[in-house]
Every structure is written in structure tokens, then in C-alpha cells.
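This follows on from our talk about sequence and fold. I would like you to pick a protein and set down its sequence and fold. Go ahead and set the record down below:
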Amino acid sequence: MAAQSRFGGIGRALQHRNYRYYWMGGAVSILGFWLHKLALGWLTWELTHSPLWLGIIGFSATFVIAVIAPFAGAVADRHGLRKIAFIALSCSSLNALTIAIITYNGAMTVELLTVLTLIQGITLSFDLPARQALVHHIVSREDLSAAIALNTTTFHVGAFIGPALFGVVVKLWDTPAAFFINSLTFFAFALALAAMKLEPRPVREKDGSTIFGDMVEGMRYTFNHPGIFALLSLTAASHLLLRPYIDLLPAFSDLIFGLGEGGFAALAGASGMGSLVGGTWLAIRGRTEGLTRLLTLGILGSGMAMFVFAATNIYPLALACMTFLGFSLVIMAVASQSLVQNAVDSTKRARVISLSTGMAVGFPALGALILGSLGDVLGVQAPVLGAAALCLTYWLWASRRLRRQSDLMEADPED
């Protein structure tokens, strides 16, 4: 009881044995993920010194998730969440190891890196929706919001620790080591999933349906649900227009602030620090009530922070903007995941989450490609400034639509 009162929702979520395995495996994997992401961006910049190629690599890394995720969600609902996540994580581990070996041997080209990054995106398409939907089965409903917040907070703790760890790893062993470490962490997470003790899956009755039919059913359900559709419509703009910032930070650090690798790590670390604060607060808060309002405020704060960041050449102000941006984006991310998990029909959970995840991971990749392409022509600041202004304009309309659905999204489904 002391742990529960002291840490709120965090203490309650960690009382579940399966969730402890899930969280520990995820925490290790997240450090590897951020090492990989930062190394990928810096390796691309070293190979090309092109904002366009930063956008292409960012696009290859994750946009495929938006395309494949609906199919992957249907596969997970049909064949088992843990099984699909385990297979996908194992494939991701092998792919990261391949990138490490090729880079270590000096044979990496930006074209080959694009192909291998695309393969990594395909494996993530199957991993993310299955793994996120699994949370609902390993904690009680009243602890679901806290568990999701803790997961997201841990992800952004990685964003805070990752840049510092990236600097140490690259200084000691050079860039290939970051990819190798990521390979090990993916495998560690797969083992953690295997160690969980879950109830046997109910035998699925043969009803003549197909995976593609399941996929269409999940999409129809999502678009016909007024609350979920309003939420995805609003968050789509922030995913497309704001969140690509991380893929463009190497260019900002080098071209705008003249600070190179160290400035890149500091900007990314400031964003991670803000995310850590915001995510920890929501995890301790641990309840669904009021999340709709927090989501809309998170997107508003993100747009304002990005606008100022893109407009300034003052490095300390840019660091402050990155901190506030990280705080606001994690509020949006946690609220979005929690509200979808709370409102969705349990029989369609992975399929709906796959659409949400596909947007959350895939749209920033498309945005990175667009902003990176424009950055080659207009400079890196102007496209980001315009994207932030466009997102804020869209927010004025879409946020009101979502707030009207707050009762539906926040209600206890059992009521």
C-alpha cells in the first residue's frame, strides 16, 4: 500500500507480474531503439549531408507502418498478440545486427541503408500493434491508463538517456556499436515476452472470415466510432506536421546552430527531458478522466513550441522549446493511447490500435520526407515553421470536435 500511495498509478501497474516482465523488457529495448534512431540519423548525415536524405531515411524507417499496420493488427488479433510480437522482435534483432556488421566493415551506402531501414519498418509494423494491445491483458482495467503512461514515459526516458548514451557509445566504439547494442535489446525484449504467464488464448471459432475481411471490419469500426475517429483526425495533424522534428534535428544542429553532433544530442536530450517530466506526471496521475482536454492542450503546446523553435537562432531558447515540445507531445501520446484503449471494443483491439499506431509512427515519416525535401530548397527552418503554423490552424477546428466526444471516450465501458 505504501508503494501505491507514494507512486500512484505507477505502483499499481507494477504490482502485476506480467506487466513487470513487459516493462523491464521494454525499458531495455527502448534504450537500444534510441541508440539505433540517433545512430541512423547521424550515419545518414555523415554519408550524405543532405536534409532530403534525412527525410528519406526517416520515411523508410516508419511510413511503411502506416501502410502495413492494419493488416498486421488483423494478423495479431487472429494468431495471438504475444506470438506475433515475439516473431517481429526477433526479426528486428537480426536486421539491426545486419546493419551493424555492414557499417563496421565500411560497406554501408545510403541506398543499402534505406533498404535495411525499410525492412526494420516492416518488422515494427507487426510488433507495435501486437505489443501495445497486449497491455490490456496484463493489467487490470483501472490500471490501464497508468500502465500506458508508464510505457510512454519509459520510451521518453530513453529519449533523454539515449543521446548521452549515444555519445558515449560512439566515442568508445563508433557508430556500428549502437546498432549492435540495439540488436541485443530487441532480443532481450522477446525473451521477456516469452517469460510472461498468460491465460491460454480462447480457441477461435471458424466462421469463414479472412484476415483481409478482419482488416476491413476493423477499419469500418474505427471510422464509424465518433470518438475514436475524432481523436485520430486531430492527432493525425500533429503526427504529420510536428513530430518529424526529430529526423531534422541533425540539420538544425549543424546548419542553424553550428554545433554538430554534440548540439544534436543536446537538442534530442532536452526533448527527452520534457517527455520524462510529462510522462511521469501522467503515470502517477493514473486515471482516464480529463484526458481528452489534456490531449487537446498537448497538441496546442506542441505546435507553439515548434513554431518558436523553427523561428529562432538562439540556442538556449531552442533548448527550452525542445523541452516544452517533449512535455507537450508526451501528454498527447499518452492521452491518445489511453483513450483509444479505454473506448475500443475488446474483440477489435489490435486492429484499431494498429491504425492508431500506424498513424503515430508512419505519418511522422511522411512529414519528414516532405519537410526534408522542402528543406533542401528553402532551408531547414522555413518548412518547419510553416508546418507548425498549419497544425495550429487545424487545431482550432478539430479540437472542438474531439472535446464534444469526451464523455464517450472517458466513460467506463462497463457502465
